[in-house]
Amino acid sequence: MRWAVSGTDWEALNVTDGWNWRQPGGTPAPAHPPVRAGQPVPTTATGTVRGGPSTDAGAPTAGSPWWSDALTDPWRDPYAPAAVVLQAPPVGGPGEPEPVRDPDAPTGRRLGPVFLISLVTALLAGMLGGALGYAFAVRGGVGGGTTLGAPPGEAPVAAQRRPDSLAGVAARVLPSVVTVRVSGRGGTSVGSGFVASADGYVITNDHVVEVSSGRATVTFNDGSTAPATVVGKDPESDVAVIKVSRTGLRPVEFGDSEALAVGDPVLAFGSPLSLANTVTAGIVSALDRTIRAGEPGGTTRYYAAIQTDAAVNQGNSGGPLVDGAGRVIGVNSVIKSLAADAEEAGNIGLAFAIPINQAKRITQDIIDTGKARRTVIGATVGDAGSGAASGVRLSAVEPSGPAAAGGLRAGDVILRLAGRPLEEPSDLIALVRKHAPGSVVTVEYRRGSDRQNTSVTLAADVK
Predict the structure, then answer these.
(1) Sheet containing 18-22: order of strands
(2) Which family does it belong to (predicted)?
(3) Which pLDDT score is estimated for 248?
(4) Which of 228, 263, 225, 222 has the alpha carbon at shortest distance from 245?
(5) Considering the entire predicted model, what is its pTM?
(6) Contact (Cβ atoms closer than 8 angstroms) between residue 279 and residue 287
(7) How far separated are the first and last CA of the chain, in Å rounded?
(8) What is the reported pLDDT for 8?
(9) Which pLDDT belongs to residue 227?
(10) What is the rounded distance in angstroms from the CA atom of residue 159 to the CA atom of residue 180?
(11) Are 243 and 254 in contact (CB under 8 A)?
(12) Among residues 72, 35, 66, which one has the least CA distance to residue 53?
């Protein structure tokens, strides 16, 4: 940089002790750089005065109003502020170039925020890790004071069961279900039953109490026991009634077996294989499945059963089959099994229950009279009609019986009773006994080649 002062050029030189001035050719200059008149004296970064008025002879002074660097720099604005601040010499000693930094490299000023952010992140991570570690320690039983289970008052929604749920129905019905044990000449028979009245009448199967000498023991849902006596039974319908020496019992609610539809949900209760208070679930698989059961040489049982796929095994006999509302719609009685031996029989998804409308009617008869009325049509059945699955032929008709009153004669082939098709002689017997005495049913029959319909009023036969 060159300056012109009163026709004399001065040069600024960088020496080890600061900025000095000289004339071209080597004449030393004053120790302070020139400044414009009236301008403040410039300082270095450390506050050292480098300019200002000078007493050195021949050097430009701060009070010289007549000098201008425009004499040597014609492009410079003569009216711009002209205070010249000379920066401090670079660090590193004479002759060393000023260090150059990568503009993308972090500087000392940038490390502060980065360090602060890192510190805050580390603190937050530590707090989170501590909280999670404490939670895992508490849940896993590490450390002191392990808490098991949910806090009081926060039971899972599944535990808040509605009364119409399966669990709600089971809770309502189980107190009315009993286990029946009977000892006799053939050993001990174990079955199930259910309370039909508050004064102690219990419904069960005839084959559960058939070995009894008139005495039985009943075990309730709560484990208490009571003696019972056999009031009466109807072997052909497989229904029996026993009386418990206890009052204040909780009876079941009866449903309507005629209102069932295939696919309705059902629950089966009882003591299968002596496992008391067992509940299984299924659906109604079929209706009016005619059953002809019994041991060879023993009593043959007929009824139009409710078929279900609810698991029913030995010991369930006599227990209730209930609908989705907890109302009894059947009495579990028979199972189909692949085993030839009855002792080894097990459930294969085919179980049968006596319709409750029939079982309830027989129970009422036994309680009222000690005997059950049997519904009859007043005819004797023979072989099926000509052709497979074409009906049931009447081999004889009682002159004063219901069939004769309806116009039926021996030799007629009954095709349908109350809309149900007949294929086997047992079908007619089972479907007739399903109805109460006095019921009027429609009968479709064939006489020769003619198909005809008639109405028959069923009657009762007491044996």
Answers:
(1) 2-5, 8-15, 18-22
(2) Belongs to the peptidase S1C family.
(3) 84
(4) 228
(5) 0.66
(6) no
(7) 144
(8) 47
(9) 94
(10) 32
(11) no
(12) 35
Contact indicator for 321, 357 with CB cutoff of 8 Å? no
* Separation of alpha carbons 338 and 382, rounded Å: 30
Note the Cα 90 to chain centre separation in Å: 79
Query: For residue 31, what are its two tokens?
Result: 């120790």
Domain coordinates in residue numbering, the chain: 1-97, 166-244, 254-369, 373-462
Q: Are 260 and 300 in contact (CB under 8 A)?
A: no
Report the catalytic residues: 207, 238, 317
Looking up tokens 């940089």 gives 1
The H or E element containing residue 266 is strand 265-270
Give kind and range of the element (H or E) at residue 19: strand 18-22
pLDDT at position 62: 45
Query: Do 252 and 320 form a contact (C-beta atoms < 8 A)?
Result: yes
Confidence of residue 5 (pLDDT cuts 50, 70, 90): very low
The helix (run of H) or strand (run of E) holding residue 115 is: helix 108-140
Select the more confidently predicted residue: 250 or 463: 250
**Euclidean distance between CA atoms 353 and 304, whole angstroms:** 9
What is the 8-class DSSP label of residue 40? Answer: P
Question: Which residue do the tokens 């002809």 mark?
Answer: 292
Does domain 373-462 correspond to CATH entry 3.30.420.10? no
For residue 266, which amino acid is it?
V
Q: Higher model confidence: residue 102 or residue 260?
A: 260
pLDDT at 21 over 60: no
Residue 108 to residue 114: CA distance in whole angstroms: 10
Residue owning tokens 């007043």: 378
Rounded mean pLDDT of 121-150? 62
- The tokens describing 66, both together, are 């007549």
Let me know if 462 is exposed, middle or buried by CB neighbors in 10 A (0-12, 13-18, 19+).
Answer: exposed
Distance in angstroms (rounded) separating the CA atoms of residues 196 and 116: 81
The fold of the 166-244 domain, in CATH, is Thrombin, subunit H (2.40.10)
Q: Would 166-244 and 373-462 be classified into the same CATH topology?
A: no
Q: Which CATH number fits domain 254-369: 2.30.30.140, 1.10.287.130, 2.40.10.10, 3.30.930.10?
A: 2.40.10.10
Write the DSSP string, 395-418: EEE-TTSHHHHTT--TT-EEEEET
- Euclidean distance between CA atoms 456 and 441, whole angstroms: 5
Report whether 311 contacts 282 (CB < 8 A).
Answer: yes
Closest to 271 in 3D by CA, of 209, 190, 344, 342:
190
